[in-house]
Amino acid sequence: MGTKVDYDSKIPNNVDLSSDRRLQRALEGWQPRFMDWWAEMGPALETQGVYLRTAVSVGRDGWAHFDHVIPHEYRWGIFLTEHDADRRIAFGQHAGEPVWQQVPGEYRADLQRLIVIQGDTEPASVEQQKLLGLTAPSLYDLRNLFQVNVEEGRHLWAMVYLLHAYFGKEGREEAEALLYRNSGSPDQPRILGAFNEETADWLAFYMFTYFTDRDGKYQLGTLKESAFDPLSRTCEFMLKEEAHHMFVGTTGVDRVVQRSAELIREHDTTDIAGFGGIPLEIIQRYINFHYSVSLDLFGGETSTNAANYYTAGLKGRWQEERRKDDHQLTEDSMLLDVPQPDGTWSQEEVQSLLALNLDLREEYISDCQNGLKRWNKILADHDIDFRFALPHPGFNRDVGINAGYHITPEGTIVDEGTWEANRKKWLPSSEDLAFVRSLMQPVYERGKIASWVAPPRHGINGKPFDYEYVYLP
Amino acid sequence: MTVAMKPAEPAGSVEVAAGEDGAPAGGQQAMPEVTFDRHPDAYRHWRLRVDGTVAWLEMDVDENGGLVPGYELKLNSYDLGVDIELYDAIQRLRFEYPGVRSVVVTSAKENVFCAGANIRMLAGSPHAWKVNFCKFTNETRNSMEDATENSGQTYLAGVNGVCAGGGYELALACEEIMLIDDNSSTVGLPEVPLLGVLPGTGGLTRVVDKRRVRKDRADVFATRSDGIKGKTAVEWNLVDELAPRRDFTERLRQRALEVAENSSRPADARGIELTPLEREATAEGITYRYVDARFDRAAGTVDITVRGPGEPAPQRVSEVHEQGARNWLLAVTRELDDLILRLRTNELELGTWLIRTQGDAEAVAAHEKVVLDGAVEDWLCNEIVLYYKRTLKRLDVTSRSLISLIEPGSCFTGVLFELMLASDLQYMLDGPPIADEDSDERAAVMLTEANFGVLPMSNGISRLESRFYREDDHVDWLRREAGRAISASEAAELELVTDAPDDIDWEDEVRIVVEGRAALSPDALTGMEANHRFVGPETMETKIFGRLTAWQNWIFNRPNASGEEGALRRYGTGKRAAFDRKRV
């Protein structure tokens, strides 16, 4: 072999990479493929440096290391939160036992599957957002896009680390397959449907980071509870980065709403399309779309897979340890609203153990409401009567008990004719998409911003908005 | 049905089969009376499309179309109702579409091929229902292989998504398997790890016997819950080839066309219509045109009478075609097939079937001759013989005591002689008819060419060879006796019957045999008969019915599968099975 690679400086980590030969061997094979993937499927826009945060250790300081970096030279690291030697399993049939540092043979296939599915979503969003850099509304936003993308790349690394470190030859094969499936590919698409749709414009990007990345937050939250300690610690660290993605989404939509509200006041009309703003109805339709598609990611309301994972200790509930119940869930039940073919709703009682997806979805929905409150407060502050609302959970669903029904945003079950006749009112139409796309003109000048979005209140890491966040050729 | 509509989970979350709708089925329910009448116009679960020489059988299971309430057929999981349609389609392809040379079995659902038998259905079904269901499924799978091997209709599986358990077993019954190369679709047999039962409709057997997968690989394959995909699946010979997602259907079509090239099926043949059966079913019995069954519930018996032809035999093959479904041998076969299926499924307590025939022995011989002679060259005659062969095989694996009663006026000749041979016991009246002691009429039987190999059992040899296994001299002797009427005393001497009581003893002898039978343990009888019936060589089919199925049925009854804490009962509850660790 040639010169010895200095693993720790090349790949920041706290998993003792420099003395783990198995992991080194695996990463040596995988890393060049990852770089090829990034070059081919990563951001299309070329830059000479982006002001990025790189995680160099898990401590408070190490986590917030900022510098201008050329994206393909980004140092994707491998971090797990600190090891807690006393951690015990919090739920399921192994509750109270020490957590596992190795994969138990009987759960190997399930754990591998969970990690592969989680891992498959991470690079998918990078692929979906590939072209967005070409139309960024400001250097600040462009920088955020890159930050989100490199961190999704790091999340992929985190999952690949688990596959390499704990799942042997098959783990290595699955890690490679994560790079071969591609979002929207006709031959080898990403596993989950929502990750095969292109993120077509920046409003969609904000919505995606608000609604879809939030799904990721909740999925990671359940894996953080896992009895398989390396998975738990990996996900806990990922959650910190995921929080930034949601910040991009929350403030992104804030700023669009803010700008639209300003234009409405300025011109005293809600019809602001002609003034370069995005009408509130279109924003609402984007909310309807991204929210309902994200709900599909929670799977069916009742799920034996989720129940099996729970009982086995592989995947818990959101904030499992804060919950005050028996952490077995075989005795409790939940109520589920079920649409009926005659157009009415009925309630069914479902054993809590089988309704874990529903439980997680409820947590997610109440979290989503917070964004709606923020955006409505902006409208109220501008004396605008319009209010955004989350559609009914049965609206526009392809997965779960509502799939196959036509349900309005208000929760009325309607026939196909009614649905089709109102579709343009409820979901972004091709005209809406074309209009939003027409606004997507890149603004790469320092301190400038596009017409349809307000500047942020604060810059990154204490820098002003007009800081040169991205060096362009 | 008023079950709420429920879709499949996204492809990311693979269930072995459906069933996520709350608590498991509680007590065992009364099962409905099942009919096997189907027509493509009213399929709920399959789409049958014929495109030139290639037929497409696309699985598109209606979730709410279960035969019994209480489960949803998610992810193309199936129950008996789904398989009955498949059986109907296979039969019609053979008879109604002679121009079809290859049959593609695939799924109309995206990312899902077939998730196998519905687990909630299995977990909630009485033991007898499970066994009957698996038996019928096995017979249907075998009939696909029979079509490939003997009918010039080759089955190809286009696995376009998740393919688990019975889904993979369905693919295994095809001659070739093409798997979609999307880097996520797998084939798998997760029964052992997930359900604590076996892939019992041929899975284990076909993996090692048909596809010659090495036993250590087969072990790895059958103990992992997540299946095997892509290149490894090809390397292990679990599938034949991979095809990319984008032109999967086209590649499948191309392959089907290539396979069609090698078929013997005539290009310009016209099919015959399998018209609805004439059948009158009441509480007392079932009457068809040529077959009649009377129930005696107190005695636990069915009196089955098969009547000989009512019209002159066709003189040539073209007349067989003109007759179509009216042809005597075809009609008798269809009626017997339907009767066996209905009795097996719906009449569990009628444990002894008394089989008689009635009619003109010479007419039977004349009718069968034109079909048997024609079978070499003519597709329809070939199909009729094959169908009769399969129906006899169905009888062979039927868990009922079969007793042939040979009386004056009967016509146990050739093809119908096989009914005698398929029976566990044969009694032949040596004397005049009981009702008319002055009559000269005597019972006789006749061997024909039909009894010497054209209707093999699942062990690959004829019923005569099985009866006289390794007694070639005896079979040769019988061959010399073919073509003539054999009396009761001769039949006893030739060892063709169990006993030949005279007219004074007849009624008592028969009564004692039947009553004695009824007093024995039905389980012991089933086991005993199955052991006696299959003499001689093992084949894949005998292994499936004799070994795989027997083990499966044992496991089905064990607490580790079916107990309160067993894996099958616990599946879908989110609770884990608790096993009794003792190896037995």
Automatic annotation (TrEMBL), chain A:
Among its keywords, does the record have Oxidoreductase? yes
Q: Name one GO cellular component term.
A: cytosol
User: Domain of life of the organism in this record?
Assistant: Bacteria
Q: Gene3D superfamilies, from UniProt?
A: Ribonucleotide Reductase, subunit A
Q: Which GO terms describe its biological process?
A: phenylacetate catabolic process
SUPFAM superfamilies reported in the protein's UniProt record: Ferritin-like
Q: Which GO terms describe its molecular function?
A: dioxygenase activity
The UniProt keywords, alphabetically, are: Dioxygenase, Oxidoreductase
Task: Name the NCBIfam families on file.
Answer: benzo_boxB
Q: Which PANTHER family match?
A: 1,2-PHENYLACETYL-COA EPOXIDASE, SUBUNIT C, PHENYLACETIC ACID DEGRADATION PROTEIN PAA
* Protein name as catalogued: Benzoyl-CoA 2,3-dioxygenase component B
Source organism of the structure: Haloechinothrix alba
Q: What is the lineage of its organism?
A: Bacteria, Bacillati, Actinomycetota, Actinomycetes, Pseudonocardiales
UniProtKB/TrEMBL annotation, chain B:
Looking up Gene3D superfamilies in the UniProt record yields: 2-enoyl-CoA Hydratase, Chain A, domain 1
One Gene Ontology biological process: fatty acid beta-oxidation
Q: Which GO terms describe its molecular function?
A: lyase activity
InterPro entries (UniProt xref): Benz-CoA_dihydrodiol_lyase, ClpP/crotonase-like_dom_sf, Enoyl-CoA_hydra/iso
Outline the segment boundaries, as ranges, of region: Disordered: 1-31
Query: What Pfam families does the record point to?
Result: ECH_1
Where would one find the signal peptide in this protein? none
**Name by which UniProt lists this protein:** Benzoyl-CoA-dihydrodiol lyase
Keyword annotations for this protein, in alphabetical order, are: Lyase
Give the organism, scientific name.
Answer: Haloechinothrix alba
